[in-house]
UniProtKB/TrEMBL annotation:
The chain crosses the membrane at residues 6-23, 86-105, 117-141. Keywords: Membrane, Transmembrane, Transmembrane helix, Transport. This is Uncharacterized protein. The keyword DNA-binding does not apply. Signal peptide: none annotated. InterPro entries: DUR (IPR031155). Coiled coil: none annotated. One of its GO terms (cellular component) is plasma membrane. One of its GO terms (molecular function) is urea transmembrane transporter activity. It comes from Protopolystoma xenopodis.
Length: 172
């Protein structure tokens, strides 16, 4: 129990301390976050340019008309605002569950007899099995969904190309 609380608290506190120690002159650097955004945008893959890769995710209109073919920081922040809020909310909830709720339940149990200990370990095993299954299956299902979506999009594009080529032959 103590190890659980210490590891969770250190996982929260240690990165904050390291960040404050390693980032000197943070205020001066963050006066213009666009400088850092431009540096990140310069990392580009010529085989998959920005408009092709992120136009759908960022819900960009006319991505081919972008400056340098890349979206600005405001567009990216706007597109991922919901994801950011969800990440912050889930982080706060899980921190509360693991640092406050779970240890308080464990402290309230006191000394367990054999049956209570078996029940507690069973709950832990169920929790670990569910977490392992989620860690394995969620990315797999997500990738399968993206593959299915890409296949359907390719089929629709092929049908549209056939339909348009049929119309151009009729006109001639």
């Amino acid at each position: 129990m103590t190890g659980n609380c210490v590891s969770l608290c250190l996982g929260i506190v240690l990165p904050v301390i390291i960040t404050f120690i390693t980032t000197r002159n943070w205020d001066e650097k963050m006066q213009n976050p666009d400088v850092y955004w431009d540096a990140a945008r310069d990392i580009d893959n010529p085989l998959k340019p920005w408009p092709e890769l992120y136009a759908e995710e960022l819900r960009l209109i006319n991505p081919e008309r972008l400056d340098d073919g890349r979206p600005c920081l405001y567009d990216v922040k706007r597109a991922f605002r919901g994801t950011m809020h969800a990440a912050v909310f889930i982080s706060v909830v899980l921190t509360f569950v693991f640092v406050v709720l779970w240890p308080s339940i464990a402290c309230g149990l006191g000394v367990m007899n054999y049956e209570e200990f078996l029940a507690w370990t069973l709950i832990m095993e169920i929790w670990l099995i569910c977490a392992t299954m989620a860690a394995f299956f969620v990315p797999l299902i997500s990738e399968l969904y993206r593959m299915r979506k890409a296949i359907l999009k390719n089929r629709i594009n092929k049908l549209l190309d056939k339909h348009e080529s049929g119309k151009s032959e009729e006109i001639e």
